[in-house]
Amino acid sequence: MAGKKTRAFPTAMDKKRGRSDATSSAGCSRSIRRRWNSPPPLSTPSPSSRFSDLPSDVLMRLAASFDVPTLWAASMACQSWREALRPLREAMVLLRKGKEYKHGRGRGIARPNPSRALEYFLKGTARGSALAMVDAGLMYWEMGRKEEAKSLYRKSAELGYPVGQCNLGVCYLEAEQPKLEEAVKLFYRAAEAGYAPAQYNLALCLHKGRGVKCDMKNAGKWYLRAAEGGNVRAMYNTSLCYSTGEGLRRNIQQARIWMKHAADGGHRKAQYEHALNLYASGDMMEVFVYLELATRAGVTYAAHIRDNVRQLLPQSSLDNAISRVENWQPSQFHLAT
User: Fold this and answer.
1) Is 82 a member of any domain?
2) Of these four, 27, 49, 133, 277, which has the most CB atoms within 10 Å of its CB?
3) What is the pLDDT of residue 118?
4) Burial state string for 31-70 with b = 16 or more CB within 10 A and e = fewer than 16
5) Domain range holding 89?
6) pLDDT in tens, 44-78
7) What is the pTM for the complete model shown?
8) Per the structure, how many domains does the chain have?
9) What Gene3D superfamilies would the database entry show (predicted)?
10) What angle do CA 121, 126, 179 make, to 5 degrees?
11) CA–CA separation, 188 and 252 (whole Å)
12) What letter would DSSP give residue 317?
């Protein structure tokens, strides 16, 4: 047998390896074909081209409630946006001029001129500004033309402007036939957008059960949010919630803090109650200041205590307190962070 060439038969492992190699070779071939035959990748559109694809009427609706900085920022996005938003930029100029006429402040304006103010607000409205719609609506409301006011509030609300939504909700509450549920829906939309007066109105509805089931826990939550947003009446109610433990967990320190905020913001009942809180501290001049403010604001029952405190003050302290009251201005708050 020596020297006889033998033929080696493939083993099972050899057969398996052979199939694997063949499969790998075929797969590689197919992969190469796919690589060469695949279409080129689609090019990603630039941000400016995506912006310019947005229809101008849709853009106008989206931007109708923008404030000045946001509107100018949007106008800088691309050339097509700049052109499409031109009417809203013009509306902002008209709106500012209308406010100057309304308040009698501005270049060449000696005194308030409501008719000229309304004229400018309506020009801004015609250019699609939800802000101008609200200002024109306020003018109509003050003139007693309430249906025209509501019509403008409704247009502004449909454009998503929280002030228009809140004002329309108030109209529904005060109507001869109130639409309470509709009012609550509008307050909720504006409250979710962060508008403090709407948050306060929503809290009132939840507190009183108007248009919605009475819910003190949620009422307390919205009172607090509105207070943090600078609403003075909400500050007073937040203080009461903390004081009684209804709607918010009882916290006397927080109650006193919010009562002082409300007093400094000009809430007359809060001024009276804050003075009573201060009485125990012995700072009679501070007590007198808040009692005098409350009395001048119409809280008649504060006068008797004020007169008693007056007798405890030396003349120099009394003069100082009166001077503070004469020069007092309500604080402007925006406490939310």
Assistant:
1) yes
2) 133
3) 97
4) eeeeeeeeeeeeeeeeeeeebbeeeeeebbeebbbbeeee
5) 60-159
6) 555 545 656 778 889 999 999 999 999 999 999 89
7) 0.81
8) 1
9) Tetratricopeptide repeat domain
10) 80
11) 29
12) H
